[in-house]
Design a protein that fits this description.
Number of strands: 16
Order of helices and strands: HHHHHHHHEEEEEEHEEEEEEEEEHE
Helix content: 25-40%
Radius of gyration: 25 Å
Number of domains: 3
Distance between the termini: 43 Å
Largest sheet: 7 strands, antiparallel
Length: 325
């Protein structure tokens, strides 16, 4: 009897371990697929080519990040002798990578103070060398970052103001179904939702989900066709913007960069950085691109479904193991 019980327990443990292994392997495969789609693989040859062709100025700044003291000194010596107006912005940009109070940080700060004080180079958007530098610098943090700046994209802002937030690129929440209002049992009447309407059809996106997934791609059947929507949630204002994507195949992600303190998003298909505040690209290889903003109503779930009885709402079955309740 005891032997049978032990065998049963062992079997159950084995099955759980197998299940855990399959789940882990599934996550690994999905990550590999996302990596291939996002360009991690193609980034390596671009990085090698860019590094081989980089100018002496960029090479000197990158030397300051070397663990070898002799390389750091060589970089400082070159910059002191061959200083250009754009070097200030590059040095400011690498400061977060140099440990506070470390021996490598102080010489850089001293050089900045000697050469410029508070001034930085002007017209950096027109300086291909500066964009190449950003590509090489941030490629170290996430290989996909190289695609943002390499290749001479069109820049409509001061690229010195585009700063890394400290996180890597993360894809939007995708392929989550829209369900009927009666099926949304996870929502409370007082929950905040962001809704849009078109041709007497409505859809709502609950704040309860958006605080976890600040970027959502959604396919909405409205007006006799499928509309590709991008929902961007701002955690600082607790509000959401909703845009319509013309081709529906942009595959947006959080870029990992901010502009004037606000997160930038990136479209994999167009290799462009967008500023949600305007819905326009700020760094793009395909000229000026723009998303179509849609009028959004922010209200309670009770008020929204009362006014729009046939509304659809985003399902909480997102594929992520998170407590949305």
């Amino acid at each position: 009897m005891a032997v049978g019980a032990i065998a049963t327990v062992s079997s159950l443990v084995w099955m759980k371990n197998q299940s855990d292994m399959h789940a882990l392997r599934h996550e690994e495969v999905m990550f590999e697929i996302e990596s291939l789609k996002s360009g991690i693989g193609p980034a390596a040859p671009v990085a090698r080519e860019l590094l081989a062709a980089t100018n002496a100025d960029n090479r000197a700044v990158l030397q300051l990040l070397s663990p070898e003291i002799k390389n750091q000194k060589a970089g400082l010596a070159y910059l002191e002798k061959n200083w250009s107006a754009h070097d200030a912005a590059k040095l400011v940009e690498i400061l977060p990578f140099l440990g506070a109070g470390s021996g490598e940080r102080e010489p850089v700060l001293k050089l900045l103070n000697q050469k410029t004080g508070k001034a930085v180079g002007k017209n950096l958007a027109a300086d291909r060398s500066y964009l190449d530098f950003k590509a090489l610098l941030y490629h170290r943090c996430d290989p996909r970052f190289i695609h943002y700046f390499a290749g001479g994209p069109k820049v409509t802002i001061d690229p010195e103001e585009v700063r890394w937030s400290g996180v890597t690129q993360s894809p939007a929440l995708r392929h989550t179904a829209l369900i009927e209002a009666g099926q949304a049992t996870y929502l409370n009447e007082s929950d905040l939702v962001f809704g849009i309407t078109s041709a007497n059809e409505s859809v709502a996106y609950p704040q309860r989900l958006l605080v976890w997934h600040s970027l959502v791609e959604s396919q909405w059947e409205a007006g006799g066709g499928t509309r590709a929507l991008l929902i961007v949630y701002d955690s600082s204002s607790h509000m959401a913007q909703i845009f319509e994507s013309a081709d529906g195949a942009d595959n947006f992600s959080q870029s990992g960069f901010v502009y004037r303190g606000e997160p930038l998003i990136v479209s994999d298909s167009k290799a462009s950085l967008w500023w949600p505040k305007t819905g326009k690209t700020v760094i793009s290889r395909q000229g000026d691109l723009e998303l179509k903003p849609l009028p959004v109503v922010a209200t309670t779930w009770a008020a929204w479904k009362s006014a729009h009885r046939q509304t659809k709402v985003l399902s909480n079955d997102t594929g992520f193991d998170r407590n949305y309740f």
